[in-house]
Inverse folding.
């Protein structure tokens, strides 16, 4: 078995806003359908709530925080799942059922066991 | 045992052909591409060292499998203690049980589909296919695909890492996904063929050999999946195009157009084989013919004509009509328009070529216009069109051909 992160890239939306209720229901449905392979996951608040942290000058250096992510892209990371699957074909078939795959993109990456 | 004085070249061929089959099996039993490859390389080296002395064993494949598996065990042992468990697992299969020899075709098919997995980018698929399925070494793959050896080595390593880390399965796709997955395989093999077929730069002889490798691969895929229309069509199409290899380039390496080729130099046996394949393939998909089969049927119309002016252009145009129902694109439309020019004359051809959209910068489109304008005697416009086509054409030999045709403008045309 291999652990995969299914990274969800969509428009920078607020999933808690009422207009996304229907879509969140679709995610709920996906979650129940793929229960057997889902090991974790979360939806993320929009990037306007994000804080970027860097430590300047290496270990022990100044903590520098910034507002939001640094790149302006059309699609941003808005959620993720952890999937434990037999192989990539199974992971891809599962990722294809995530609602974001239909209007955004889902990046499937193997996870390094730690 | 056969005689030990077998020619070395023949021996190398046996070892290379058997080697890829042995590799296909080893990857399954060892589960690690790199270890499997190193083990097979060791076994091949031992075969080349011992067989000239002892003779080729009666079952060279079984010999190679057993030897490669022992090498794999050694390699895993040496690698680390962590691998101890894997080494024992591989060892349990020792000595070579016959099941491995029986499932060898399945293993080869697994290797084909894994090399051409859609999660791998096309250049990686092509590189891996050449490396593992055709048995070229990294340097040869690099030279054949015109990239540096360092780049190719990185590409192949990265591809194998992705297969291992992302757990790309080593398996033949299920029946319902087979047709789609076979299209990826066919695209890779066809790309490989074209790399060789249109080789005009780099190491031309080696790149030319790519076309032969692609035909061998198409043969392999067809042998493994004899009832799949795509497998039948791909082999037929490659055989027909490859059958012209001795006639399509002149002594100076310039391309000879289909109409000017010496048809006695076409390989008739390959044409006969391809035509039989097309008949068998089309019966398997009467409702929706496979695009490779249809392209092969078009190529067969040319291959079966004893001379250019006996070409059945009515049949060619009809096959293009069929092709457009299963694969409709601007290039297919252009080829159909050119065929109309042959069937109905240059005026109809020019109208058809002009009706094809989205090819305004495409050298073959510009060249087709120029040739048709020349045939219509519209010399001034033809001269302009040749100019545009020459600018757009990136292949030096084809550019020279266009220049020659431009110079002949205004001379009485033979047609």
């Amino acid at each position: 078995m291999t652990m995969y992160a299914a990274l969800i890239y969509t428009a920078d939306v607020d999933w808690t806003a009422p207009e996304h209720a229907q879509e969140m229901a679709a995610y709920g449905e996906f979650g129940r359908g793929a229960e057997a392979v889902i090991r974790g996951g979360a939806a993320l608040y929009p990037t306007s709530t994000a804080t970027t942290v860097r430590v300047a000058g290496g270990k022990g250096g100044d903590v520098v925080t910034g507002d939001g992510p640094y790149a302006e892209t059309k699609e941003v990371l808005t959620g993720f799942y952890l999937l434990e699957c037999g192989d990539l074909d199974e992971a891809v078939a599962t990722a294809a059922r995530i609602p974001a795959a239909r209007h955004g993109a889902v990046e499937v990456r193997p996870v390094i066991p730690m | 045992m056969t005689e030990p004085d077998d020619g070395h070249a023949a021996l190398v061929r046996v070892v290379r052909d058997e080697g890829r089959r042995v590799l296909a099996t080893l990857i399954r039993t060892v589960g690690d591409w790199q270890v499997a490859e190193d083990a097979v390389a060791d076994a091949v080296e031992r075969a080349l060292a011992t067989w000239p002395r002892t003779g080729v064993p009666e079952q060279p494949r079984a010999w190679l499998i057993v030897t490669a598996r022992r090498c794999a065990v050694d390699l895993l042992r040496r690698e680390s203690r962590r691998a101890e468990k894997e080494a024992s697992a591989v060892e349990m299969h020792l000595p070579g049980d016959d099941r491995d020899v029986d499932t060898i075709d399945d293993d080869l098919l697994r290797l084909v589909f894994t090399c051409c997995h859609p999660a791998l980018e096309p250049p990686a698929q092509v590189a891996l296919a050449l490396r593992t399925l055709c048995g070229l070494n990294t340097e040869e793959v690099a030279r054949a695909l015109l990239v540096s050896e360092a780049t190719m080595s990185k590409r192949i390593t990265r591809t194998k890492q992705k297969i291992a880390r992302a757990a790309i399965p080593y398996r033949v796709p299920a029946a319902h996904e087979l047709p789609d997955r076979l299209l990826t395989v066919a695209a890779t093999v066809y790309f490989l063929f074209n790399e060789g077929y249109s080789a005009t730069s780099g190491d031309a002889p080696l790149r030319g050999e790519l076309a032969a490798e692609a035909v061998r691969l198409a043969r392999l895929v067809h042998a493994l999946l004899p009832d799949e229309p795509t497998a039948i069509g791909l082999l037929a199409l490659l055989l027909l195009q490859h059958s012209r290899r001795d006639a399509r380039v002149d002594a100076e390496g310039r391309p000879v157009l289909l109409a000017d080729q010496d048809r006695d130099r076409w390989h008739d046996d390959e044409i006969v084989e391809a035509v039989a394949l097309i008949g068998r393939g089309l019966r398997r998909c009467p409702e929706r013919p496979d695009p490779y089969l249809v392209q092969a049927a078009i190529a067969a119309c040319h291959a079966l004509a004893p001379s250019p002016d006996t070409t059945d252009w009515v049949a060619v145009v009809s096959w293009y009509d069929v092709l457009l129902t299963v694969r409709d694109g601007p290039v297919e439309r252009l080829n159909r328009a050119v065929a109309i020019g042959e069937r109905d004359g240059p005026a109809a051809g020019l109208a058809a070529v002009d009706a094809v959209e989205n090819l305004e910068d495409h050298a073959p489109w510009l060249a087709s216009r120029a040739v048709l304008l020349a045939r219509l005697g519209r010399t001034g416009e033809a001269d302009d069109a040749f100019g545009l086509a020459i600018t757009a054409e990136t292949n030096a030999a084809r550019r020279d051909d266009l220049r020659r045709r431009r110079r002949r403008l205004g001379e009485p045309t033979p047609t």
In short: Chain B has 20 helices and no strands. Chain B touches chain A at residues 117, 119, 165-169 (CB under 8 Å). The domain at 329-415 of chain B is CATH 1.25.40.10 (Serine Threonine Protein Phosphatase 5, Tetratricopeptide repeat).
